[in-house]
Design brief:
Length: 84
């Protein structure tokens, strides 16, 4: 029996419960993630998909940097408002 391809992005009911899917969706980079998966499914060679991988990586790095900055600002604000 053949196992399903890990690159098959057809929607299933349990996709909604996948924590990785939810995490990537929150970053705003989901479409780029799917583009990497589609490229891998089509070409079966990660070297061919480097532009998609780099674009997805850049998106994730931008999200992480923005998140770090947001957390840093929140921490600074809570430090300033804390009683001495």
């Amino acid at each position: 029996m053949a196992s399903p391809s890990p690159h098959d992005r057809s929607r299933k009911d349990d996709d909604e419960d996948d924590p990785v899917e939810r995490m990537i969706s929150r970053t705003g980079c989901a479409e780029l993630h799917y583009a990497v998966q589609e490229c891998m499914a089509e070409h079966q060679d990660w070297r061919v998909c480097q532009s998609q991988v780099q674009t997805f990586k850049d998106c994730m790095m931008n999200f992480q940097n923005a998140r770090k900055e947001q957390l840093r600002k929140q921490q600074a604000a809570s430090t300033q408002s804390a009683p001495s």
